[in-house]
LacI family transcriptional regulator
Amino acid sequence: MLSAITALGFVRNESARHLRAGRSRTIGLVVLDIANPFFTDVARGVEEAANAQGLSVVLCNSDGQPAREAAHLEVLTEQRVRGVVLAPTAELSPQIETLRQRGVPVVLLDRRAPGPDQCAVAVDDVLGGRLAADHLLERGHRRIAFIGGPGGLPQLQERYRGVVAAVREGTGSDDALTVVTPETLTVAGGREAAARLLGLPAGLRPTAAVCANDLLAMGVLQEMVRHRVRVPDDLAIVGYDDIDYAAAAAVPLTSVRKPRQELGRRAAELLLDEAAAEGHQHDQPVFEPTLVVRESSMVRRLRPTVAS
């Protein structure tokens, strides 16, 4: 028998063996935008946790589109993955509950859970928004822009809430904040937002900008440099996520740091625990962001004085 197996070049199919047992040795990871280095780092954390238990990761990209997300979730279910780590689109899909009813655990990534009966890993983005805005206020800025993105993502809404609260407390006025909403959360979206800022009358133009992610911040920086606007002298910029490119930008970017790999690692650990343990207890850790100050916001502006 062994000689026949050798002669035929037989290779054991581990995948088929585990499928017959009702499970595979893979987990799914669905992200919003694989082109964003934030999710690349998250994926590394997920993979580290999975590999530690001899498992592999199937990576899917939804591009923020609910229909694509739903299609990926369906395929992953058909492949009998042990579970799914999901960075969801704006609205939580009812398909998530369908998967869980089929015995496929789903852990939400970079999103708070809607209730206590599901694992989720998130960051305190309200605090992150406050950190960014408070830093600029402490540097003397009194006209600040918030550059967001397409509506609906709770993470962006929370960052905006943090910025609004800080600016309101720091200036006593809602008029001190200018909101710009480009079409995408990309470098191109940042360039679009910067062009809008440059189109404002000089007296109304913000002197600082909080960007909802680092890709937007890089786009703003590119456009400002192209128009010979000095960063940070004429416009201070703060990004969000602190991807590796932030420190390598033409003007190194101040950014709100999220623990990217740790987010992915913790989400995968919770997923694998839920998949393996009948006595699993749901957990919803929320990480605190930190501010990393670099050259893009280092200049301190003189506050206007009241004439006597």
